[in-house]
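Journal club side-thread
Mid-discussion, someone asked how the predicted structure for our own chain would compare to the paper's figures. Pasting it here so we can look after the session.
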Amino acid sequence: MGTIYGNSQGLKSSQLKQLQKLYEQWQPGNSSTETLGDRFITHEFAQQLAAVSHDIHQPVCLYINRRGQVVRVGVGTPAQTQLSPSDLPRQSAERLSGVRCLAVQSHPPDTASLVAMVRQRLDALVVLVDGGSGHSRNGAAKIQAAYLAHVVPDIDHPWTVSPLSLDELAAEDFDDLVHDWETELREARFDLSQLQPAASDHDRVLLVGLKTEKMTDQQFQEGLMELERLVDSAGGEVVGTIQQKRSQPHPQTVVGQGKIEEIALQAQSLRANVIAFDRDISASQARNLEEAIGVRVVDRTEVILDIFAQRAQSQAGKLQVELAQLEYQLPRLRGRGQAMSRLGAGIGTRGPGETKLETERRTIQRRIAQLQQEVNQLQAHRSRLRQQREQQAIPVIALAGYTNAGKSTLLNVLTQAEVYTADQLFATLDPTTRRLSIPDPETGVRQDILLTDTVGFIHHLPPALMDAFRATLEEVTEANALLHLVDLSHPAWAEHIRSVEGILAELPAMPGTALLAFNKIDCVDSQTLTQAQQEYPNALFISATKRLGLDTLKQRLLQLSGVAAVQR
């Protein structure tokens, strides 16, 4: 018996047998079965399909080759039951796949189904709309409408949909139509491969930004720019951006229906395989969007978690990343579209927490409890290390700041720490502590302080990360003093200061002494520098890469450690 694809869970054995019998619609050498021949559908077969779909209360899809043989039976929409590239016959760039899809569902073909048709290069998509038993005297399902869709040589809108009656559809000659369509594609010299997702070792990401009435234009644009940097840091390629203004997010789909259509068309024309939203979205919103667009949807937090998954090097870092991923995924176990597999090697799918999302909730909860216990042990271990430092009477200064502010670069320059640095968000995750020896300007005696580089902060730091990385964040709370480093070359530097201060205020305890230092002054104009100096007259202004202002910084750090030691 043939395999039933899609969402077959919960179906009775009798219903599964009904579906499996659809494979017998055409068998070579079996004269007892009705053949589709050169037709899209026959009246009898349409009624048979409608009856099966009506009985299981779900859409049903059949994939049929040009010999009229059923090669796949699926439960779900065309977007949820589509064939994998390996299941499709190999064809030239100007020919269709040789497989058509016949679907019975309660609504006309939506954008996600049309995108699936295009990406599989299907000969055609035939959708029969089941009107329900209320349209039939005997209570059986009845076909209310029929639609015929096929690929056209237009990169921006590569499909056309024609409403037909069932009689008209049954009378159409399938072979002649497909021949005409392929002739049209060939004469237009249209390369069908450009309609499929690009073969690439990285994700092609379409950004979607929603500006609500609570946001200023500057905040909105800065948020989109940061999302682009996040995607780039995660290894994705941003291929386009779509924006919408709404008073508030749509409760079901974040953006409006018209914008969803635009997103689907853009994703198709740009060959994007990921849609990234500039805000956190719920599991139900992600499911609704994936079903409507036919492309994997991720939010800002998932992109950040993906970066953390790639950056974690130490066992402690991997432990905290896995905990953060599972805590984020737990409330989202339900609702992911059947067709949108969350396992893979793309944004939102990889990392130490890359366990199957279909795992039972109890299993994940047990794993979270185990990880929480290990994080507690990690906290205890770090606490013992800090106690040893305190016994040595060496003051500790924590480097904190917005991600990519230059903390690791500064630590390397001051202590030759050789910590990994890159012009990326969250380039380093694991805290690194190094000794810095500074001569006292009055006595000449060298004094030691410990500098600790910490994980970078970001606007609206996801709560899952705050909880999972509490062992790391304690390096900030337990330090004698704090050096808050700011990237002055970033247009949103003032907003970064407020974000970091907000996150620090949420931590249970903070050092009483802090020093503000503006980095990358070699990359800013005089007007920006003057503005920062006027607003923060007690701050330091340095360039870690150009080694500007570092002698003054060392002396201020020495003073800072002395004051902090007295306060402690």
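Post-session note: The longest strand covers residues 143-151.
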